[in-house]
Amino acid sequence: MWLIIVTLFLLIIGIRKFLELLTIDNVKGKAVVITACDSGFGHDTSIKCCQNGMIVFSGCLTREGATELEKRCTNMEGKLFTFIIDVGDDDSMRSGCEKVKQIIKKIGIYSIYGLIVNAGILGDCGPFDWISTKEYKRVFEVNTFGGIRTVEYFKELVKKSRGRIVITTSICGMLVILNIEPYKCYKFAMEAFCDTLY
Question: Signal peptide position in this chain (predicted)?
Fold first, then answer.
């Protein structure tokens, strides 16, 4: 039994290491839109894409987050454009998408190669009895509807280049983990939404 478990574990590690070695050729000059770039995955992904010569449109929730990211990406091979965006707000999304469209038109590319939907909040934690419907709505508005809204606004730009949409979820979208009720419900919803995209 232990031999099977150890073998599976080593196989998973080996596959992961192999996949980490794979790269996409010719990313230089390709455009990508990333949400939630103030910190965390979005911030780090923006930097990595800039280092690889991509044109990066980083949506930040705050001006401070955008300024910090701009400082980190100066003198890199790629080009960074930040914009303030709240994925939980239609007007903010519309404005952000229009800004991206104006910039890509100005630099003459007319499409984006990738869209990374990354924005999300944890929300209140605890058993079901402790959490109100209002909290579920708040988490779903940002995490679920914000993600869907992001895809809705940017999908045409991705389709033009036959690019890719990447939506960050987690293991919480596949397993039930106790005491993060709204968060895990949103993760299941986003996994289902991802399955509808083809």
Answer: 1-17
